[in-house]
Amino acid sequence: MLRLPRFELRAPETIDEVVAALEQPGARLVAGGTDILPNLKHRLDRPPVLVSLSRVAGLSKVEVDEKAGLLRIGARVTLNGLSEHPQVCERLPSLAKAAGLVASPLIRNMGTLGGNVNLDTRCRYVNQTSFWREAIGGGCLKSEGDVCHVVPSGRKCVAAMSSDCVPVLISLDARVVLVGPQGRRELLLEDYYQADGTRHTTRGDGELTTELVVPLPRGPRRSAYAKWTVRGSIDFPLVSVALRFELEEDRVSAPVREAHAVVGVLGARPRRITRLEDARGKALDDPALAALVAERVHAQCKPLENVPYEAPYRRQMLRVHARRAIAALVAEG
User: Fold this and answer.
1) What is the reported pLDDT for 138?
2) Which tens digit of pLDDT belongs to each residue from 234-251?
């Protein structure tokens, strides 16, 4: 049995109290605990203080702002609550699906959207016991060592961002709201991440995520999320792809106005697929559109050996699941 290290637990009741508690060096946030607690057991972190968000009011709301055309989702909304919320299911179905595919029902009942957005990066060489890491030579850039076992000549950690919700949120142009010692700030979620697995977000010391703000559709849209795992539950995705198509009319045979694709589990940040302008004017049910998107995804994404299964096979699965996701949208009509 892996034991937790010793730490002090604080449970403030307001956001200001949370910010104050985070002023202690090394303090870490905990909500559902489904990510940080296993990492503590593996001795990937040894915080002196854990700051619980369980008593903070106002972080568990899902609110529709019709006037601004926005859906506001509190950081403490559980993944299960998100996957079943009527407004999310109706207006942002790809987000509801992604949240409903995370791990298992038990974890979705505990895990939160804020936790999934701030999910730590993962790598086959670091998410192991401390004994295992010592056996391969003293860890890596993300733990106790000074070398990357995936890219030995690399200077940055390439541990992968394995969140299910993040690629979807980025494809939907979501924004993240943070509150810290310097006050409140809001930025595109896409700009929140950076290509360094040891610190893959731009979150400042003392900041916490309070909500995600997602623009609502302003016209006909189809969106999808697909991921590949070995098992149907529990597993983190080995590759994932989020798709969004804005249509001229509300039918799958209508021309596409905009096409967006975001791929996850490549490195420390998701990748937005470029050069999708050629999809404009093609119908969603046109096989040429599925071929175009799948080939763009395959051409621009080169997985590394940072998670299980061979990188070339994972790359092929990206092409497969991009096609399958579009076929499923067409079948839904």
Assistant:
1) 78
2) 999 999 999 999 999 999
Task: Measure CA of the first residue to CA of the last residue in the chain; give whole Å.
Answer: 50
Question: How far is CA 159 from each of CA 74, 125, 169, 260, 266, rounded to the nearest angstrom?
Answer: 27, 9, 20, 25, 8
| CATH number for 294 | 3.30.390.50
- The pLDDT mean for the chain works out to 97
Domain count, the chain: 1
Contact 157, 195 (CB under 8 A): no
What is each CA distance from 268 to 163, 198, 211, 264, 303, in whole angstroms?
Answer: 10, 9, 22, 9, 11
Residue located via tokens 């092929």: 316
**Closest alpha carbon to 74 in 91, 62, 64, 89:** 62
Domain that holds residue 269: 221-332
The answer to whether residue 102 is domain-embedded is: no
Q: Residues of 99-119 as b/e, b for ≥16 C-beta within 10 angstroms?
A: bbbbbeeebbebbbbbbbbbb
Do the beta carbons of residue 248 and residue 326 sit within 8 Å?
Answer: no
- How far, in Å, are 102, 173, 302 from residue 240 at the CA level? 12, 17, 13
User: Is 259 within the bounds of a domain?
Assistant: yes
pLDDT in tens, 176-188: 999 999 999 999 9
